[in-house]
Amino acid sequence: MSTTAGGTPGRQAGGTPSKHEWLRQRLQEVVAGLEPHTPLPTEREIATQHGVSRQTVRRALDALEDAGSIYRVHGSGTYTAGPMISKTLTMTSFSEDMTARGLVPSSRLLAAEAMPAGDRIGEQLAIPGEESVVRLARLRLADNRPMCLETTYLPEARVPELLEQDDLERSLYALLHSAYGFRLTRAEQIVTGAVLTGTEAALLRAPENTPALRVHRIGLDDRDCPLEVTESLYRGDRYDLRFTVRREGE
Protein backbone atom coordinates (compact mmCIF):
# COMPACT_ATOMS: atom_id res chain seq x y z
CA MET A 1 0.00 0.00 0.00
CA SER A 2 1.38 3.39 -0.96
CA THR A 3 1.19 6.44 1.31
CA THR A 4 1.50 10.15 0.73
CA ALA A 5 4.27 12.23 2.30
CA GLY A 6 1.92 13.17 5.11
CA GLY A 7 1.38 9.51 6.02
CA THR A 8 -2.26 9.25 4.86
CA PRO A 9 -3.35 6.14 2.99
CA GLY A 10 -2.96 6.08 -0.77
CA ARG A 11 -5.30 4.49 -3.29
CA GLN A 12 -5.03 0.75 -3.99
CA ALA A 13 -6.48 -1.36 -6.75
CA GLY A 14 -9.18 -2.53 -4.38
CA GLY A 15 -10.04 1.01 -3.24
CA THR A 16 -8.85 3.27 -0.46
CA PRO A 17 -9.06 1.83 3.05
CA SER A 18 -10.82 3.82 5.72
CA LYS A 19 -8.58 5.84 8.02
CA HIS A 20 -9.13 3.60 11.01
CA GLU A 21 -8.43 0.47 8.93
CA TRP A 22 -5.26 2.02 7.55
CA LEU A 23 -4.19 2.96 11.07
CA ARG A 24 -5.08 -0.51 12.37
CA GLN A 25 -2.76 -2.04 9.78
CA ARG A 26 0.05 0.34 10.71
CA LEU A 27 -0.36 -0.31 14.42
CA GLN A 28 -0.58 -4.08 13.86
CA GLU A 29 2.84 -3.93 12.20
CA VAL A 30 4.23 -2.07 15.20
CA VAL A 31 2.62 -4.41 17.73
CA ALA A 32 3.96 -7.48 15.91
CA GLY A 33 7.52 -6.29 16.49
CA LEU A 34 7.14 -5.70 20.24
CA GLU A 35 7.49 -8.01 23.22
CA PRO A 36 4.22 -9.04 24.92
CA HIS A 37 2.94 -6.58 27.55
CA THR A 38 4.84 -3.61 26.13
CA PRO A 39 2.95 -0.37 26.85
CA LEU A 40 1.75 1.52 23.76
CA PRO A 41 1.64 5.32 23.38
CA THR A 42 -1.51 7.10 24.51
CA GLU A 43 -4.39 7.75 22.10
CA ARG A 44 -3.38 11.40 21.94
CA GLU A 45 0.22 10.52 21.09
CA ILE A 46 -0.85 8.05 18.38
CA ALA A 47 -3.26 10.62 16.90
CA THR A 48 -0.51 13.27 16.76
CA GLN A 49 2.05 10.87 15.32
CA HIS A 50 -0.21 9.70 12.49
CA GLY A 51 -2.16 12.89 11.87
CA VAL A 52 -5.59 11.42 12.59
CA SER A 53 -8.37 12.09 15.09
CA ARG A 54 -8.58 10.37 18.47
CA GLN A 55 -11.85 8.79 17.35
CA THR A 56 -9.96 7.14 14.47
CA VAL A 57 -7.31 5.94 16.93
CA ARG A 58 -9.96 4.54 19.24
CA ARG A 59 -11.63 2.59 16.42
CA ALA A 60 -8.29 1.15 15.30
CA LEU A 61 -7.41 0.12 18.85
CA ASP A 62 -10.87 -1.41 19.32
CA ALA A 63 -10.25 -3.60 16.26
CA LEU A 64 -6.83 -4.66 17.56
CA GLU A 65 -8.31 -5.48 20.96
CA ASP A 66 -11.09 -7.55 19.36
CA ALA A 67 -8.42 -9.47 17.44
CA GLY A 68 -6.49 -10.17 20.65
CA SER A 69 -3.42 -8.19 19.59
CA ILE A 70 -3.61 -5.71 22.48
CA TYR A 71 -5.37 -5.34 25.81
CA ARG A 72 -6.37 -2.33 27.88
CA VAL A 73 -6.07 -1.81 31.60
CA HIS A 74 -8.33 0.88 33.03
CA GLY A 75 -6.30 3.70 34.52
CA SER A 76 -3.01 2.24 33.26
CA GLY A 77 -2.94 2.13 29.46
CA THR A 78 -2.82 -0.14 26.43
CA TYR A 79 -0.42 -3.08 26.11
CA THR A 80 0.63 -5.58 23.50
CA ALA A 81 -0.90 -9.01 24.13
CA GLY A 82 0.94 -12.30 24.37
CA PRO A 83 -0.15 -15.43 22.50
CA MET A 84 -3.59 -16.67 23.54
CA ILE A 85 -3.92 -20.17 24.95
CA SER A 86 -7.29 -21.84 24.48
CA LYS A 87 -8.43 -24.39 27.05
CA THR A 88 -11.00 -26.96 25.94
CA LEU A 89 -13.36 -28.91 28.19
CA THR A 90 -11.16 -32.02 28.02
CA MET A 91 -9.64 -32.68 31.44
CA THR A 92 -5.93 -32.03 31.02
CA SER A 93 -3.24 -30.65 33.29
CA PHE A 94 -1.54 -27.30 32.77
CA SER A 95 1.62 -29.14 31.70
CA GLU A 96 -0.31 -31.18 29.13
CA ASP A 97 -2.01 -28.05 27.78
CA MET A 98 1.25 -26.20 27.29
CA THR A 99 3.12 -29.19 25.84
CA ALA A 100 0.32 -29.76 23.29
CA ARG A 101 0.84 -26.18 22.09
CA GLY A 102 4.58 -26.52 21.66
CA LEU A 103 5.37 -24.56 24.83
CA VAL A 104 7.64 -25.64 27.65
CA PRO A 105 5.71 -25.82 30.95
CA SER A 106 7.41 -25.11 34.27
CA SER A 107 6.51 -24.07 37.80
CA ARG A 108 7.92 -22.06 40.65
CA LEU A 109 6.99 -23.33 44.10
CA LEU A 110 5.71 -20.48 46.26
CA ALA A 111 4.55 -22.45 49.32
CA ALA A 112 4.26 -26.07 50.47
CA GLU A 113 2.77 -26.89 53.86
CA ALA A 114 0.42 -29.09 55.85
CA MET A 115 -2.54 -27.37 57.47
CA PRO A 116 -6.07 -28.10 58.75
CA ALA A 117 -8.58 -28.40 55.93
CA GLY A 118 -11.13 -26.07 57.49
CA ASP A 119 -14.84 -26.25 56.82
CA ARG A 120 -14.86 -25.08 53.18
CA ILE A 121 -11.99 -27.18 51.82
CA GLY A 122 -12.93 -30.12 54.05
CA GLU A 123 -16.47 -30.19 52.68
CA GLN A 124 -15.20 -30.15 49.09
CA LEU A 125 -12.70 -32.95 49.79
CA ALA A 126 -15.29 -34.91 51.79
CA ILE A 127 -13.12 -34.95 54.93
CA PRO A 128 -13.61 -33.43 58.41
CA GLY A 129 -12.43 -29.85 58.67
CA GLU A 130 -9.88 -30.72 61.37
CA GLU A 131 -8.09 -33.23 59.13
CA SER A 132 -4.84 -32.17 57.54
CA VAL A 133 -4.38 -31.20 53.91
CA VAL A 134 -1.27 -30.46 51.88
CA ARG A 135 -1.34 -26.98 50.38
CA LEU A 136 0.81 -26.26 47.33
CA ALA A 137 1.00 -22.74 45.88
CA ARG A 138 2.77 -22.51 42.54
CA LEU A 139 3.39 -20.01 39.76
CA ARG A 140 2.84 -21.78 36.43
CA LEU A 141 4.87 -20.68 33.42
CA ALA A 142 4.97 -21.39 29.68
CA ASP A 143 8.31 -20.77 27.95
CA ASN A 144 9.32 -19.02 31.21
CA ARG A 145 6.45 -16.54 30.95
CA PRO A 146 3.96 -16.48 33.85
CA MET A 147 0.54 -17.83 32.94
CA CYS A 148 -1.30 -18.52 36.17
CA LEU A 149 -1.19 -18.74 39.94
CA GLU A 150 -2.33 -22.10 41.27
CA THR A 151 -3.11 -23.24 44.81
CA THR A 152 -3.93 -26.93 45.34
CA TYR A 153 -5.23 -28.71 48.44
CA LEU A 154 -4.95 -32.51 48.82
CA PRO A 155 -5.96 -34.75 51.77
CA GLU A 156 -2.67 -35.50 53.53
CA ALA A 157 -3.89 -38.98 54.50
CA ARG A 158 -4.10 -39.92 50.82
CA VAL A 159 -0.74 -38.43 49.84
CA PRO A 160 1.58 -39.27 52.76
CA GLU A 161 5.06 -37.73 52.58
CA LEU A 162 4.10 -35.64 49.56
CA LEU A 163 6.01 -32.72 51.04
CA GLU A 164 9.13 -34.91 51.05
CA GLN A 165 9.03 -35.38 47.27
CA ASP A 166 12.09 -34.00 45.51
CA ASP A 167 10.35 -32.00 42.83
CA LEU A 168 7.00 -30.39 43.59
CA GLU A 169 7.43 -28.07 40.63
CA ARG A 170 6.75 -30.69 37.96
CA SER A 171 3.32 -31.84 36.79
CA LEU A 172 1.28 -32.62 39.90
CA TYR A 173 -0.99 -35.04 38.03
CA ALA A 174 2.06 -36.99 36.81
CA LEU A 175 3.47 -37.02 40.35
CA LEU A 176 0.20 -38.27 41.87
CA HIS A 177 0.08 -41.08 39.32
CA SER A 178 3.72 -42.18 39.62
CA ALA A 179 4.05 -41.87 43.41
CA TYR A 180 0.56 -42.89 44.57
CA GLY A 181 -1.14 -44.55 41.61
CA PHE A 182 -3.89 -41.92 41.46
CA ARG A 183 -5.47 -40.93 38.17
CA LEU A 184 -7.89 -38.01 38.09
CA THR A 185 -10.61 -38.75 35.58
CA ARG A 186 -13.03 -35.84 35.88
CA ALA A 187 -13.47 -32.50 37.58
CA GLU A 188 -16.16 -30.05 38.55
CA GLN A 189 -15.14 -26.50 37.67
CA ILE A 190 -16.47 -22.99 38.20
CA VAL A 191 -15.02 -20.12 36.15
CA THR A 192 -15.47 -16.49 37.16
CA GLY A 193 -14.06 -13.17 36.01
CA ALA A 194 -11.51 -11.28 38.12
CA VAL A 195 -8.81 -8.63 37.93
CA LEU A 196 -5.20 -8.89 39.07
CA THR A 197 -4.21 -6.83 42.08
CA GLY A 198 -1.12 -6.37 44.23
CA THR A 199 0.99 -9.50 44.62
CA GLU A 200 -1.01 -11.38 41.97
CA ALA A 201 -0.16 -8.78 39.31
CA ALA A 202 3.50 -8.67 40.37
CA LEU A 203 3.93 -12.45 40.22
CA LEU A 204 2.21 -12.67 36.82
CA ARG A 205 4.21 -9.67 35.52
CA ALA A 206 1.07 -7.83 34.51
CA PRO A 207 -0.28 -4.35 35.27
CA GLU A 208 -2.73 -4.13 38.13
CA ASN A 209 -6.39 -4.46 37.10
CA THR A 210 -5.49 -6.70 34.15
CA PRO A 211 -8.48 -9.00 33.43
CA ALA A 212 -8.15 -12.55 34.74
CA LEU A 213 -10.02 -15.84 34.89
CA ARG A 214 -10.48 -17.52 38.28
CA VAL A 215 -11.03 -21.28 38.02
CA HIS A 216 -12.14 -23.35 41.02
CA ARG A 217 -11.77 -27.09 40.41
CA ILE A 218 -12.58 -30.20 42.39
CA GLY A 219 -10.74 -33.14 40.83
CA LEU A 220 -12.09 -36.66 41.31
CA ASP A 221 -10.36 -39.99 40.88
CA ASP A 222 -11.67 -43.05 39.03
CA ARG A 223 -13.83 -43.96 42.06
CA ASP A 224 -15.40 -40.48 42.06
CA CYS A 225 -13.64 -39.57 45.31
CA PRO A 226 -12.47 -35.94 45.51
CA LEU A 227 -8.68 -35.83 45.55
CA GLU A 228 -7.86 -32.19 44.90
CA VAL A 229 -9.27 -28.72 45.27
CA THR A 230 -7.42 -26.28 43.05
CA GLU A 231 -7.89 -22.55 42.72
CA SER A 232 -6.21 -21.08 39.64
CA LEU A 233 -5.91 -17.49 38.53
CA TYR A 234 -5.16 -17.17 34.82
CA ARG A 235 -4.11 -14.07 32.93
CA GLY A 236 -7.22 -13.16 30.92
CA ASP A 237 -5.13 -11.60 28.15
CA ARG A 238 -3.33 -14.90 27.54
CA TYR A 239 -5.93 -17.56 28.29
CA ASP A 240 -9.47 -18.36 27.21
CA LEU A 241 -11.92 -21.23 27.45
CA ARG A 242 -13.30 -22.82 24.32
CA PHE A 243 -16.17 -25.29 24.17
CA THR A 244 -19.04 -26.48 22.01
CA VAL A 245 -22.68 -26.27 23.09
CA ARG A 246 -25.60 -28.13 21.56
CA ARG A 247 -29.32 -27.46 21.68
CA GLU A 248 -31.25 -30.17 23.52
CA GLY A 249 -33.11 -32.59 21.25
CA GLU A 250 -30.85 -32.01 18.27
Provide structural commentary.
It is a single chain. The chain has two domains: 19-80, Winged helix-like DNA-binding domain superfamily/Winged helix DNA-binding domain (Arc Repressor Mutant, subunit A, Orthogonal Bundle), CATH 1.10.10; 85-241, Chorismate lyase-like (Chorismate lyase, 3-Layer(aba) Sandwich). Helix 1 crosses helix 3. It has helices at residues 19-32, 43-50, 54-66, 94-100, 118-125, 172-180, 198-203; strands at 70-73, 77-80, 85-87, 105-116, 132-142, 145-155, 184-195, 211-221, 226-235, 239-241. The chain is α+β, with helices and mostly antiparallel strands and 250 residues long. The protein is built from seven helices and ten strands. It is elongated. A hairpin with a 3-residue loop joins strand 1 (70-73) and strand 2.
